[in-house]
Amino acid sequence: MTELNIIGAPAEAGAQGPKRSARHPGPLLSQGNTADARCDWTREEIAALFDMPFNDLMFEAQSIHRANHPRNEVQLSTLLSIKTGACPEDCGYCSQSTEADSGLKATKLMDVQAVLQAAAQAKDNGSGRFCMGAAWRNPKARDMPKLVAMVQGVRAMGMETCMTLGMLDEGQARQLADAGLDYYNHNIDTSPENYANVITTRTFEDRIETLENVRNAGINVCCGGIVGMGETRQDRIGFLHALATMPHPESVPINALVPVEGTVLGDMLKDTPLAKIDEVEFVRTVAVARIVMPQSMVRLSAGRESMSEACQALCFMAGANSIFTGDKLLTAANAGDDKDALLLGKLGLTPMMAQPHGHLEAAE
């Protein structure tokens, strides 16, 4: 068996499963230590985590979660589409692509005041983080003043701010950093090997370049991906390996594909067993993400609408500590505030207080 350094795993006499290696001894949870994050995970180590007996995997993930995060708190985030549709990218999962025949009506960039009104309502509903998404390949110079005003206005309400606008150059990233943007979302979507099967209009390396521009500007990184796109477990291993061997994103959204009719993947997977990822496999993915990125926020994103309460409860046990709440994500349906409140109450989980983050140290 591949020897592992399960950071934060408690020693247990006679325990079966992955072992901590002499090279990466790591602290023990039983000693009350908080783990330092590793960035040298191998694919073999991550594969061994996926192969662990389910109960052992859940125990390790929950133990590491408790060492690094408040144990029964969940961050509530709201996502608003501030510019919908007509995106020139050909992402196979996305109804906003011009390549999709989804019937989605394109809209222009929203007015600043309308966005701030939506943010205020989200705050009233308990959200501590407000995320703004625009369907662009990249924002234009003419868009930046409005985007800056949105960030400043939402942050003035005491909420964490996040944007996802496509690719950013260095100057755009610095403009958003100067406005006070807390997080920028730019997902890698899948493994490097599977990427071209999902998107052809930009490369995996393009994604990494934007992430570097964001981090160099001092903005916290939000980066994850989508499972249930017909990929193999090896692709899920490769996806988490890519995330865990870069500077760990401060926030890691894990999406379950919502197959939309008229999109490449929606039509390809329709009426097949691959149209919905197995719930146990999804929970395993969340648990492995928590173990290999112990200090990151792990967010349940798209796909919760079709998940059972039991599946979501297991995801929280596996270390997920953030959700998108509200009735709608960018274009897909979501569980809704009332339904989420009932579930969190049933599980004894409480909303995390908003804490706008300080920026990373910007590169010179």
UniProtKB/TrEMBL annotation:
Classification via PANTHER family: BIOTIN SYNTHASE, BIOTIN SYNTHASE, MITOCHONDRIAL
Name the record gives this protein: Biotin synthase
GO biological process: biotin biosynthetic process
Entry's Gene Ontology molecular function annotations: 2 iron, 2 sulfur cluster binding; 4 iron, 4 sulfur cluster binding; biotin synthase activity; iron ion binding
Positions with a binding annotation for [2Fe-2S] cluster: C131, C162, C222, R299
Subunit organization: Homodimer.
Positions contributing to [4Fe-4S] cluster binding: C87, C91, C94
This protein's UniProt keywords: 2Fe-2S, 4Fe-4S, Biotin biosynthesis, Iron, Iron-sulfur, Metal-binding, S-adenosyl-L-methionine, Transferase
